[in-house]
Amino acid sequence: MSTTTASKPATSAAKPTNYKQAMFVIGSMFFILGFVTWLNSLLIPFLKQACELTDFVAYFVAFAFYISYFVMAIPSSMILKKIGFTKGMSLSLIVMAIGALIFVPAAQTRSYPIFLAGLFTTAAGMTLLQAAVNPYITIIGPIESAAQRMSIMGICNKLAGMIGIFVLSLFLFKDSEALSAKIATLSGAEKELELDLLASRVIVPYIIMAAVLIVLAVVVRKSSLPEPAADDETVDHGPDPFGRTSAFQIPYLVLGVLCLFLYVGVEVLAIDSLTLYGESQGLTKEIASKLGIFSLIAFTAGYLIGVALVPKVVSQKTAFVICAVLGIVFTIGALLTSGNVSIGFMVALSFAHSLMWPGIWPLAINKLGKFTKFGSALLIMGIAGGAILPIVYGAMADAMGDRQLPYIIMIPCYLFMVYYALSGSKKGLPQD
After folding, report:
1. Segments of the chain scoring below 70 in pLDDT
2. Domain parsing of the chain, residue ranges
3. What is the second-level CATH architecture of the domain 11-226+247-426?
C-alpha cells in the first residue's frame, strides 16, 4: 500500500486492501482489550485474599478499572482528534504497559491502593483504544453490517479473555486450596509473609504483559491504516443538516449511553462475580477461577450466531431484543436454583450478552454525522456501568450475607434494554 493511499481519510468504507489490513489490526486490538479486561474476574478473588478484603472492597477492582472509561472518554476523544486513530492506538498500548508495570510495586508492598492505581492506568489506555477501535469498526463498512463486524471483533475479544483467564489462573491459583488452608492456620508476621508471597505471584505475568504491549505499540505505530470519518462528518461547527447543535440534543444517543451503561454493568457483574459466586455454591477456588472461561465460550457462541445470522436472517435490533429477554430469563433461573444449575444460568448470561454491544452501538451512533466522535466518547463513558453495578452488588452481598439474591438488580437493567431497542432508539432519530 502506498503512503499516499494510507494517508487519505477513509469514508464509511475503506478500499478492499485497506479494509483487510484494518480488520486484521483492529482484530488484534480487540484481542488485547479482551485479554486485559477479563483478568479482573481473577484479580477480584485473588486480591480479596491477598489483601484481606470484604466483597464490597474487592469489587473496587472493577470500579477502578471501569471508572477510568468515564474519566478518560472525553480526553481520549480529544487526543484522537489531534493525533489520529493509528497514533492513538499506539499511545494507548504504551499507557496500558505502564499500568501493568505498576503491578510490580503494588505486589511488592501488597498495597491495594497501588493495585487500583495500576488498574486505573491500564484502563485509561484501554479507554483511548476503545475510543479508536469502536467507531473505526462501525464506520469502516456499511452501517447495516456493523453488528456483524463487531461480532467478529467480539470473537477476538472473548478468545483472548479465555486465554488470559487460563494462563493467569495458573500463576495465581496454583495450589490455592492448600495455600488457603495454610494461611488460615497462621497469624502475625508468618501470615503477613505468606500473603506477601501470594501477592508476588502477579509480578511475572504482568511484566510479560507490559513487554508484549510495548512491542505491539511499535508494530501498530509502523502500520499504515486508513483514517476513518463518518460520511457526513464536516469541519463546520454550526448546526448539522438536522438542526442539531449539541450531541445532548439527540435523545436516542443519550438513552443509548444509559443503555450501554446498564449493559456493561450486567456483563461485567456476570463474569467478574462468578469466581466468588462459584465458591459460595461449593466449588473449589481452582475450579471456580476458571468459570469465566465457560462464560466467554458462551459469549463466543453468541457472537458466532451473530456473524451467521445478522443481518441476513435477523436484524441487529431483533437480535438485541432477543438477547435482553434471555437476560431476564437466565437471571430468574439463577435466582430460583442453586449449585451447578444456578452457576450454569450465570454462565448462560454471557450468551445473552453477546449481541448487546453490537446491537446498542449502531443504534446509538446512527445518523450522528458531525457528532460521531463525541457521541462515541459518550458511549465509551457508558462503560462506567462496569464500575458501578459490581460494587452495588458487593455491598448488597456483604449486607445480606448472600451472593445470590443481589443478582436481582440485573432484571430492571434488561427491561430498560428492551425498551431502548423497541422505542428509545427511535427518540429524535432523523427521518430520511
Report:
1. 1-19, 139-145, 147-148, 151, 225-239, 432
2. 11-226+247-426
3. Up-down Bundle (1.20)
Nearest of 321, 260, 285, 276 to residue 180 by alpha carbon: 285
* Per-residue pLDDT tens digits for 20-33: 777 788 888 888 98
What pTM was estimated for this model as a whole?
0.86
Give the up-direction half-sphere exposure of residue 298: CA atoms within 13 A in the CB hemisphere: 23
Q: Kind and range of the H or E element at 9?
A: strand 9-10
- Which tens digit of pLDDT belongs to each residue from 128-160? 998 788 777 776 666 666 766 776 787 788 889
